[in-house]
From TrEMBL:
Transmembrane segments: none annotated. This is Rv2578c family radical SAM protein. Keywords: Iron, Iron-sulfur, Metal-binding. It comes from Herbiconiux daphne. It comes from the Bacteria.
Amino acid sequence: MRWNGQTLDSETPSTLPGLARLNNLVRSVQTPEFAGMTFHEVLAKSALNHVSGASTMMPFAWTINPYRGCSHACVYCFARPTHTYLELDAGKDFDQQIIVKVNVGEVLEREVAKKSWQHPSVALGTNTDPYQRAEGRYALMPSIIRALAGSGTPFSILTKGSLMRRDLDLIAEASQVVPVSLAMSIAVYDDELQQSIEPGTPTTKARLATVTAVREKGLDCQVFLMPILPFLTDTTEHLDHALGLAAAAGASSVVYSALHLKPGVKQWFMAWLSREHPQLVSAYARLYAKGTYAPVEYREWLAARMKPIVRKHGLNRGRPSGVTGGVAPPGRADTLAVPSFGPVGDSQPMLF
Ligand code: SF4
């Protein structure tokens, strides 16, 4: 099995009290290549998660998350609170204590072979990133892609990981037999800010190069310009620069939304803001005083600002795909005629 025979430098039965509750924990691993991180390898009982309330907002009813927690460590990550279920915290633990479903490919193969599996679309990257750093060690995605394509299951992948390039031949092969949607999330086009707010991610340049690599394989690649950070990345200059680079990289369409700050994320984000941009704390406190979303006035203002920039760069307007659960290019038959969709917990993004 995949997790046998790996070289380990330290192995601990359980490094955190909450993990003792996991009766499927194989071991917890730390290695010098991933300094500061611990991988908790578990045997998953199921690979496919059913998402209740699939809709035009979330055009997928099924997801796969090979990892829980994400070393990309985006300060604004909406999935942070999901990490508290094992007494892990939504801050540093989310970034550094990664649950790895080491048998996810084998379990998935059994699940999609069942007669009851009707081959609805499956979305990857809706909760945590399937091409985060751990994937370089565990290589779980190839078996997932093979199982989905082999069973005739359409799928979508949303990632910030340039590691997806490793699997592009396989993904291109899969796209010959099932509909596939790919999207690269690239929100910040200022290197200093990007390293500060997404410290574990590949650079913007590396992600743009991944978009180009996808296009060179003959596949579409959407760019998710999400989240747009009020007062930090919402200037005309930044947005114009961003969409210019996305278009030049070959993006098929762009999807954007303003920052959301739900409980459990807001505290982590505001602590970062106080450290890095203290002059903006009161402005953010006002903007997000009423809850998770920026006020509708802000979102309307942003939409008005974005529209001519999107047009200027000749970017297509993406649409939710009823077939893959991702974003389909304009005119494709599987496109749903609805105005908006977003990942889990990410309501009201706008599509262009
Ligand atoms: S890449 Fe996605 S899942 Fe990972 S930390 Fe960033 S926002 Fe969260």
